[in-house]
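#dry-run=false #mode=assembly
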Amino acid sequence: MRRKFRRDIGALDGLFSFAEEFETENGLDDSESYFLDLTLEELFTNLVRHARGSDDIDVEIELDGDLMTIRLTDRETKPFDGNSFREIDTKAPLMEREPGGLGIHLVKMMADSLEYDYDDGTLVIMATKRLEER
Amino acid sequence: MTFDISVGGDGTIRLAGRLDSNQVDMTRTVLEKVKTNVTVDFAELRYISSAGLGLLLGTQKRLIDTGHKIEIVNMTPHIRDIFTIAGFDFIFDIK
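#status=ok
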C-alpha cells in the first residue's frame, strides 16, 4: 500500500487511518499494530520537523511473507544524516533526561532494521520488522 | 481511536485512547496546572508515542524540583513495554 501525505503534523490522523487499513487487511495483532503506528508517527514527524523537503511525503507499507517493510520517501530535501540523532542513555537519572531523539530510539529498538538513504535530494527511510508467523 | 483527558474529583488525571503528536497541546494544558503529587490513570490509554512521553518527562522533572511526583496506575502491557524501552520505568512510580 502506498499513499502521499502532506507535510504537516495534522496529516497524522490520515496516516493512522492508512495504517489501520493495512493492519486490518493483513491481520496484524495489537503489538504489531502498535509498532506500525509508532514507527509511522515517529518517522513522519521527524521528516516534517527536520528534513524540510518541498513535496508531500510518500509512505509505503509492504508485507512480503512475514517481513513488514515501512518506507517513507521525502523529495527535494537538504542533505540529511539519519545517524546524526543522538543516542539515548536510558539509564540516565531523571534530571539528565531530554526528550530529543526518544522517538527514533523507540523505533530502533523495536524494529529489526532502520536505514536512511540520501541521494541527490531524495531521502528514503526504511524500517523492517519480522512479524509473527501468519 | 480518539483521545480524551479528564481530571477526577480526587485530582486523578485519566488518559484515554491515543496520545499522539496531535494531542500533546491538549494534554500539556492539563499537566501544566499540576503543582503537587498527581496520579495519572492509564487504564483506558491504548497508545502513546515519544510526544506524550516527552510531555510526561518534562512534567515529572518540574514536579520533582518541588518535591512532588507523578504516579502512573493501570498501565497496559504494550505501554509498559514502551516505558521499558524508553528507560522510563525507573524514573516514574508505576503501580
